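ESCALATION

Customer reports they have been waiting on this structure for their group meeting. Please prioritize. Original submission:
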Amino acid sequence: MKRITAIAVVLVVGGTQAVLGQELRLELPDRTPAAVMSYRGAGWLERPERVAEEMPEEMLAVLGLEDGDVVADIGAGSGFYTRRMSRLVSPSGTVYAVDIQPEMIDILSDNIEQEGLANVTPVLSTAEDPGLPEGAIDWMLLVDVYHEFADPGVMLDRMSGALKADGRVALLEYRVEDGTGDHILAAHRMSVRQVMIEWTQAGFRLAELHEFLPGQHLFVFEKASLGAAGGQPIEHVDLLDAMSDGRVSVEVRGNDAESIRLAIQRTRAEAMVVTFPVGTYFNAPTGSSDMVALRDGMVLLTNDASHDWRVPARLAHPTATVPGAGDALEVQSADDHRRERNVLWVFQGLDFPPQIAPLLEQIALWIASVDAGYDDLAPHLRGAPLPPANGIALALAYVENAGIDVLDTRIWSERERYLPAISDPSLRALFDDWARQ
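Update from on-call: job pushed to the front of the queue and completed.
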């Protein structure tokens, strides 16, 4: 218990001090690229369990690579995928193995030499340019690397230039939406919504989306300029827009304290991926608690069947009843509930021990949504895996991290009811800092 608390406190103090005193943000900040994984982690890229975790043979089968193809492994690392693609495009095909770290290129080159692969060309790239020949590439593969691009717009433009007119890109990123990617650090996960917004703005369109991998999304992109020659793309549609335009029929029902269920069905014969942002609000007109989406959501609609869509969510009210299957909910924009949206956006981008994550998310949301006080929160902290006073203090720190002025909250005004019991010195120092403002 002590170790879990200490981990959480370090995260809180490091993230909170930078935003003290800010006004509530009207817009969410842009996605922050993750730090590039060092070449010192090359051994992790070759871990034996990676085959079960990522199913490389099954994934590469989607690409349909064959002899003579010219492919590029962007962010090739140690060559885990490079070596596999080399065999698929042999004997006359070529694999460009691209990486920005010279040390990683050396490791990759040694691995290629050991396996006697003659059709691989290592390429030392930059953060802005993959260093590939113009208009030469049939397929590009990016496995859990795009989220590290320092300037993704520039890099995508250069990648587009290196593709043939009908060239394609296979992109893999660990999931945000359903928790299956949570064993990877939050900065190294991306939602379908995040990817689609960035790639469509860069001139790509979605040709395929596969969800059979244990923890990753598999996107297949092509140039939007391909037009009708590329067939019908999968369109990205926001849930509220799709409902407003009549593209989908949706029935939203309660489920339990941690999720809601949507029955969603397309009304037009077009493939679409429907998403919504974290913080999307689900109003309960019946008097039970409203619910708030815990993460970005997505569902792929490629046929006319009704799809059962379970959405991880948190209760907006600490004292109202949990909406059940008989309670219909109304979808509302996250932008109309900015306090709730910003708090849960912060949690979506952080890593927490699973023993305390649901508690902190829920307590922070109640502080933001209904200005919950001590008597509202204390019953939910009994039996928690960290001291109740520390739990309130941690949650309040993350409310501040979301850009909400904690000095205006009821739980801050009632701090003497729990402040003496805060056992972590970093949290107490944080409260002292707030009190001096």
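Sent to customer with the following note: Residues 2-16 form the longest helix (15 residues).
Escalation resolved.
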